[in-house]
Amino acid sequence: MKAKLTALLLALSPTLAIAHEGHGGIGLFHHMSELVPAVVLIAIVAFVIYRRTK
Asked: What is the rounded CA–CA span in Å between residue 24 and residue 38?
């Protein structure tokens, strides 16, 4: 259970960012190209942690 919670928290951490004013974009979508590599990396790390603790 602890490993699943850790993986979930790692996977959701990029969604904690809040969009700031001045770009004309809505929400996180105007930074999606910057966030995708981080999301993929966190998903890979979470998967590796999950597989090692299983």
From this structure: 23
Whether the CB-CB separation of 53 and 3 falls below 8 Å is answered with yes
State the DSSP H helix or E strand holding residue 28, giving kind and residue range, or none if neither. none
CA atoms within 13 A on the CB side of 9: 7
Interval 40-49 mean pLDDT: 91
The per-residue pLDDT for 52 is 92
CA 15 to chain centre: 6
Rounding to the nearest 10 degrees, give the CA dihedral for residues 30, 31, 37, 43.
Answer: -90
Q: How far apart are the C-alpha atoms of 8 and 47, rounded to whole Å? A: 10
- Which comes out higher in pLDDT, residue 29 or 32? 32
